Give the backbone structure.
Amino acid sequence: MLQIGFIRDHKDEVIRRLAVKNFKAEEIISQIISLDEKRRETQKNLDDGLAEANAAAKEIGALYQKGLASEAGALKEKTARIKEQTRELSLVLDEITSQMNDLLVQLPNLPHSSVKPGHSAADNEIVAEWGKIPEFTVEAKPHWELAAAYDIIDFDLGSKVTGAGFPFYKGKGAKLQRALINFFLEEAINAGYTEFQPPLFVNEDSAYGTGQLPDKDSQMYAITLDKLYAIPTAEVPITNIYRDVILKATDFPVKNVAYSSCFRREAGSYGKDVRGLNRLHQFDKVEIVHIAHPDTSYEQLEQMRAHVASLLQKLELPFRILRLCGGDMSFTSALTYDFEVFSGAQKRWLEVSSVSNFENFQANRMKLRFKDEEGKIRLTHTLNGSALALPRVVAALLENNQVAGGIRIPAALVKYTGFEFISR
C-alpha cells in the first residue's frame, strides 16, 4: 500500500507513475487527499479536546481541594460535554480512516523508473538470453504425450479424483518432481538462504499483507467457514513471518527459501495454453524471499535474478529474461523480471519464474519495519521470486531432452533422481 504522506507530497508524480501501469489515478488520488485533510483536521480537534479534558480534570481536583465545590461541579459538566464531543470525533475519525484505506488499497504499487509503458506481454523487453533452441531429427512430441507414453504423469486420473488441473505424478515422474524440489532447495541453501516449511493456508491478515486481498481474492481457494485461504505461493506465509516486526539494520539481508504446494483457481483460463502442465490449479514451487534495506534492495533483486538464471543454466534449459512493461506487471510489484524457457515441442516460450521488488508496498501493509543506524524506524523493502516453479520446467525438460527411446535427465539432476534416463 502506498504511503499517504508520499501521495500527499508527490501527487503529480504518483499520478504520472501509475499511468505507466495504465492506471488512471487522478480521481481516486484527489479523493484520498481530500479525506486525508479531513482526517488530519478531525485528529487535531480530537487531540485538542482530549488535552482540554485532561487539563480540566486536573483543575477540578484543585478546585475541590480549595473547597470550591460549585465551581468544580460546573467544570465537571463542561468536561462531560467535551468527552462526548471527543467520542463523536473518534467515531468520525474511524469512519474517515476506513474510507481512506478503502481507497488506498485500490492503488497499485508505483513502477520503478526503469519500467516502460505498455499494455501486454507483447510490450515486454528482453534483457538477456541463454542457450540454444533445441533441434530434433524427428518430430518432437509435447510433454503430455510423453507423459502418457512413459506413464509418468496421469492427467485423466487427476480429473477423476479432483478435477482438471490436478495431475497425478507417477513412478519416475514423481521422483523427477522430488529431485527438482531437492535440487532447488539445496542450491538456495548453498547460496545462503534459510529454509522454511510453511503452512499451506493463511488467514485474511496474511493474504492482505502481501497484496492477495482484496486484489486477487477471486483467484484464491477459500475455506469460508474458517476464513482461511490456500496459498498461491510460499511468498505469502514466508513474508508474513515479519508482519508487525521491527528488524535491526544489522539483520539485513534476510534471505529465506521455502518449498510448498501452491493453489490457484486460474479463473477464466482455457485453450491450448493450459494443456498438460502449462497451467495447473495445484503445483509445486520453491520460492525465495528477501527482506532488504531500502538502499540495497535493487542489488538484492539482481542477485536473485542471477540465482534463478544459474538454476536454468544447470538444467541446460534455453531461457530468456524479460523486464515487464507497466501493463503486464502485478498490482504489487515495482519491478519484475520474468524468466521463460523454450518448449521444444510446443515451439514457444513458457514462463517459469517471476522475480520482483515490491519496495515498501507490502511492508507498509504489514507494518514491517526496521530501526536504522540513527535509530529511526523505517519501512523495509520486500522481494520474492520463483526458484523455481516446477510444472513448466518439467514440461520443457521432457520436451527438450527427448531422444530415441526415452528422455535424458540433465547431469545436474542425476544425483537427485538416481537415474539418467526415462524409458518404457
The longest strand covers residues 282-292. The chain has a mean pLDDT of 95.
